[in-house]
């Protein structure tokens, strides 16, 4: 069995992709549903400026991230992968949210994988630095950039990434499917 270097995004990948809807809907006084998410950029979905989205994040980000729900089977499968592979959490969250993210990881009893808070959606450099064999992601732009740079991506299926279809990107519908593909890549 090959020991893989696995990079794992957090929001929309480990967390339920729509668990933040209530916070955004309350703050922006909207009634957006998961089926309304045809784009990964929330400022576009909510028809607000980036500055308004940043203001929201500064006011609600900590509480929102601490209360984020973990997808079914993710915890157990992450622990299994952590025990047999090199695993890293690579997130676009700002560095200022790092202590909140670490607290959330501990609260949700996730493995203590090393955390990379990039403050940017560009993840290619981090993936290359970590010699990433496979990246678990939900954001279609991130997935495309990673794939274009030769990195295998397992793309968690969401309403906002349906359009992406390309080499090196494999769409997955559950954490059990992720585990099966990672096991296959490792030669198990």
UniProtKB/TrEMBL annotation:
Entry EC number(s): 3.1.3.-
UniProt KW Hydrolase keyword: yes
Active site (catalytic residues): 9, 11
Domain of life assignment: Bacteria
Top-level enzyme category: hydrolase
A Pfam entry, by short name: NT5C
Keyword Hydrolase appears in the UniProt entry: yes
Family: Belongs to the 5'(3')-deoxyribonucleotidase family.
Name the UniProt record assigns to this protein: Nucleotidase
Organism listed in the record: Peptoclostridium acidaminophilum DSM 3953
């Amino acid at each position: 069995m090959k020991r893989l270097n696995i990079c794992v995004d957090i929001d929309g990948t480990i967390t339920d992709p729509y668990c933040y809807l209530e916070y955004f809907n309350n703050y922006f006084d909207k009634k957006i549903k998961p089926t309304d998410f045809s784009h990964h950029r929330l400022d576009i979905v909510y028809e607000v400026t980036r500055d308004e989205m940043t203001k929201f994040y500064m006011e609600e980000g900590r509480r929102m991230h601490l209360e984020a729900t973990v997808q079914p089977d993710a915890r157990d499968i992450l622990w299994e992968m952590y025990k047999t592979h090199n695993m890293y959490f690579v997130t676009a969250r700002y560095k200022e949210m790092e202590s909140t993210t670490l607290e959330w990881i501990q609260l949700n009893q996730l493995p203590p994988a090393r955390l990379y808070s990039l403050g940017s959606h560009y993840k290619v450099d981090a993936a290359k630095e970590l010699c990433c064999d496979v990246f678990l992601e939900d954001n279609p732009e991130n997935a495309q950039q990673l794939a274009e740079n030769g990195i295998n991506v397992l793309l968690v299926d969401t309403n906002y990434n349906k359009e992406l279809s390309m080499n090196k990107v494999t769409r997955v519908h559950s954490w059990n499917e992720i585990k099966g593909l990672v096991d296959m890549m490792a030669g198990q």
